[in-house]
Design a protein that fits this description.
Layout: E1 3-8, E2 13-17, H1 22-31, E3 39-42, H2 48-60, E4 63-66, E5 73-76, E6 84-85, H3 87-90, H4 100-107, E7 109-113, H5 126-134, E8 138-142, E9 145-149, E10 158-160, H6 166-176, E11 182-186, H7 192-203, E12 207-211, E13 214-218, E14 226-229, H8 234-246, E15 250-254, H9 262-271, E16 274-277, E17 281-285, E18 295-297, H10 309-317, E19 322-326, H11 337-343, E20 346-350, E21 353-357, E22 366-368, H12 372-383, E23 387-392, H13 395-400, H14 404-410, E24 414-418
Parallel strand pairs: 2-15, 3-14, 6-7, 10-11, 18-19, 22-23
Antiparallel strand pairs: 1-23, 1-24, 3-5, 4-5, 7-9, 8-9, 11-13, 12-13, 15-17, 16-17, 19-21, 20-21
């Protein structure tokens, strides 16, 4: 199993180009199941989760033609598709549940495995099932599968999500595109990736309108041939912003609209980073002394994303003074703490709050990754550690960060993949 060897501390200098968004690509790829016409999706990131979704689409019958660099996929669906999403493909990735909505909407039946993914909390699919049931899906859970069907077309309705859920919002939008009549979704997630999904579907002829956390979808008979370029990955951009702040860096981050990480930029400015933004790039200089923040709380967009919580915790370990980090999205997202403690971090966990004592002098050690974002947090910590750090189980990183070691090498990180 691959691992990283990082020799710290490292100075970060240079420029980096942000890849396409994994979290936008997955629902967009799932939504291509709705189409009879060819679809071309550009700016896909070359990461394992995208390969898994493409393999899943192929298993359902889609023909996929990839460009040489594998960042553009042309997708052609036959008239008759399979409707069985097997456990062997779905088990590794949470986003696989997103094929349920389009399958039930277009083919009126599906056998979809309950999903897997990172072990960061329960993340139940009940919000997906509740919403799709309101649209007319009938289902039962059997042997780890969702056996679903509908009597003909789904029918538009009003759905009020009991809790904001990114995946359930996406699945419902996709399913409602071909439903009869009007669907109104209330208390929706409004992450930029969801707006990207809406933009893609609208470009293909869907009728989706937004007002705050309310989404209105008027069903159409079919979607048109289309070509679409996926947005850039704001979590990757946020991660590199944290890296530059952490390591007294001087970094130009290209190929990203800074507006989609304005909350994160404002937080890093408070910590002491000097940041300039242009239309499609960010220039960030890390401070000599990192200021602590009394309380950082993860929230749904436009708040601080849970996907940056682990990276910000590393930053607070190096800050002057004490900080608290409250994780309000997932109940099991502090698994990186024990590994950071191996490097010398002083962190106390109580329920969903981490109290971080700053001024940590990280000393290199052997570490174990637990999930995607925890993995990259360990990489950040290793960059500012004294000595050698080995990070095991980096397949988590390969799931969500494109070519991360080459990007890090380019900006001055002494990193090596050991196979």
């Amino acid at each position: 199993m691959d691992k990283f060897l990082i020799k710290g501390p490292c100075k970060i200098r240079g420029d980096i180009s942000i890849s396409g968004s994994k979290n936008a690509s997955l629902p967009i790829l799932a939504a291509t199941l709705l189409f009879n016409e060819p679809v071309i999706i550009k700016n896909l990131p070359r990461v394992k989760d995208i390969n898994t979704m493409l393999n899943l689409l192929q298993s359902l019958g889609s023909k996929i033609i990839l460009s040489k660099d594998k960042k553009t996929a042309k997708i052609l669906n036959p008239k008759k598709m399979k409707t069985f999403a097997s456990y062997s493909l779905v088990k590794t990735m949470r986003g696989s549940i997103l094929v349920l909505g389009p399958l039930i909407s277009k083919y009126h039946k599906s056998k979809t495995s309950l999903p897997g993914g990172c072990l960061i909390g329960a993340r139940p699919v009940n919000y997906h099932l509740l919403a799709l049931k309101k649209l007319g899906m009938k289902y039962e859970l059997k042997d780890g599968y969702i056996l679903a069907k509908s009597n003909g077309k789904l029918r538009g309705t009003v759905i009020n999500f009991p809790k904001i859920s990114v995946g359930a919002t996406e699945n419902s939008i996709i399913a409602a595109c071909l439903a009869q009549g009007k669907t109104i979704l209330k208390n929706c997630a409004i992450e930029p990736e969801i707006k990207d999904l809406s933009n893609f579907l609208n470009k293909a002829g869907a009728k989706i309108k937004w007002a705050g956390r309310t989404c209105q979808i008027t069903g159409v008979k079919s979607l048109n041939k289309t070509e679409y370029s996926v947005m850039s990955d704001r979590i990757e951009a946020g991660t590199f912003c944290v890296a530059a702040t952490l390591a007294k860096g001087n970094l130009k981050i290209k190929n990203l609209n800074p507006k989609i990480i304005s909350t994160e930029i404002n937080l890093l400015k408070k910590i002491g980073a000097k940041i300039k933004t242009n239309k499609n790039e960010i220039v960030i200089k890390g401070p000599n002394k990192i200021k602590s923040i009394k309380s950082i709380k993860t929230k749904e967009f436009p708040g601080i994303p849970t996907d940056l919580q682990a990276q910000l915790m590393v930053l607070m370990c190096k800050a002057v003074g004490k900080s608290t980090i409250i994780e309000s999205i997932f109940e099991n997202r502090f698994m990186h703490v024990a590994e950071l403690q191996r490097l010398g971090a002083k962190i106390i966990i109580k329920n969903n709050t981490a109290t971080v004592q700053g001024n940590t002098n990280f000393i290199g050690a052997e570490l174990m990754s637990s999930d995607l974002r925890a993995s990259v947090a360990l990489v950040l910590a290793a960059i500012v550690s004294n000595g050698k750090t080995y990070i095991n189980r980096i397949y988590h990183l390969d799931r969500g960060y494109e070519n991360i070691e080459n990007k890090l090498k380019k900006i001055g990180v002494k990193i090596k993949r050991i196979r």
